[in-house]
Amino acid sequence: MNKRIRKKKQKQLEKCLLDLATAIDAGIQEYWRWRETMQRRYAQLYAEEYARRMRLIPKQ
Question: How does pLDDT run along the chain (60 residues), one tens digit per residue?
Fold first, then answer.
């Protein structure tokens, strides 16, 4: 019975670690999507500000 309990606890631990790894992976992917979005947005804002300062487009 002791061996069976150890096996069960081992499987629970493995499942817990697998769930944790999956959650971490999803978080990292979400972070990179967010970062790419912010980089595009900042590049767009920079380009707009640069164009305004060079008087290529009027101030709004």
Answer: 698 999 999 999 999 999 999 999 999 999 999 999 999 999 999 998 888 888 887 666
pTM of the model: 0.66
- Whether residue 36 contacts residue 42, with contact meaning beta carbons closer than 8 Å, is answered with no
Please list, in sequence order, all residues whose beta carbon lies within 8 angstroms of the beta carbon of residue 58, skipping any fewer than 6 positions away.
52
Q: What CA–CA distance (Å, rounded) separates 34 from 41? A: 11
CA proximity to 26, closest of 15, 34, 37: 34
